[in-house]
């Protein structure tokens, strides 16, 4: 898919062969024009919307979704990262990742966490930055803590514990 001439309009080739013009909003970070580009990697085709100014990107397997994602994008609040902003940065920087790849990278970071003299807080952050890319992570965190708060716990006396399985009333 060629993306030149008019940077603010993406030509979308529909499955039917018709071409639809979709407006691309300016970059939420730097205000420059953006363009759609097609990438093939590992047998998959991805559609990216790339900022011509700062290089911000979104990647999707579907061109319409890429444009929608780009147009709904907002600049990250500068003071605090969120799970969403971390994910967005990872996707921009590295492209889409599969769950096995995410787990593999998280394990590598976990190994660094276990190394002698590791900066534990920094290495733990790297592990979590990897793992939070698993789709549904932020929601699962809320859901799981709600469950944990209601559970009964067997304390081991070393600052950790195991939850006591609820008895099945049947
Ligand atoms: Zn930009």
Describe what you observe in this structure.
The N terminus is likely disordered. It contains 5 helices and 7 strands, in the order E-E-E-E-E-H-H-H-H-H-E-E. Helix 3 runs antiparallel to helix 4. The protein is an alpha+beta fold. The chain starts with 8 loop residues before the first strand and ends in a 7-residue tail after the last strand. The chain has 2 domains: 68 residues, no CATH class; 81 residues, no CATH class. The strands form 3 sheets. It has a 3-stranded antiparallel β-sheet with strand order 3-4-5, sandwiched between helices. A two-stranded antiparallel ribbon has the order 1-2. The radius of gyration is 21 Å and the shape is elongated. Zinc ion (ZN) binds next to loops.
Strand order of the largest sheet: 3-4-5
Q: Tally the helices: what do you get?
A: 5
Mean pLDDT: 84
Work out the strand percent: 15-25%
Query: How helix-rich are the residues, as a percent range?
Result: 25-40%
Low-confidence stretches at least 5 residues in length (pLDDT < 50)?
1-7
Compute the CA-based radius of gyration: 21 Å
Strand tally is: 7
Number of folding domains?
2
Large-scale geometry: elongated
Q: Based on helices, strands and strand pairing, what is the structural class?
A: alpha+beta
Bound molecules: zinc ion
SSE order, one letter for each helix or strand: EEEEEHHHHHEE
């Amino acid at each position: 898919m060629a993306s030149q001439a008019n940077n603010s309009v993406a030509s979308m080739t529909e499955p039917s062969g018709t071409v639809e013009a979709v407006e691309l909003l300016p970059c939420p970070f730097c205000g420059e024009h953006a363009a759609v580009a097609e990438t093939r990697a590992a047998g998959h085709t991805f559609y990216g919307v790339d900022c011509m100014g700062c290089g911000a990107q979104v990647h999707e397997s579907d061109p319409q979704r890429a444009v929608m994602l780009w147009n709904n994008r907002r600049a990250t609040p500068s003071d605090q990262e969120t799970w969403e902003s971390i994910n967005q940065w990872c996707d921009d920087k590295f492209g889409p990742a599969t769950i096995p790849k995410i787990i593999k990278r998280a394990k590598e970071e976990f190994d660094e966490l276990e190394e002698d003299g590791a900066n534990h807080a920094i290495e733990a952050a790297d592990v979590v930055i990897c793992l939070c890319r698993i789709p549904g992570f932020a929601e699962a965190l809320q859901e799981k803590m709600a469950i944990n708060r209601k559970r009964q716990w067997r304390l081991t006396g070393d600052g950790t514990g195991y939850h006591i399985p609820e008895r099945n009333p049947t």
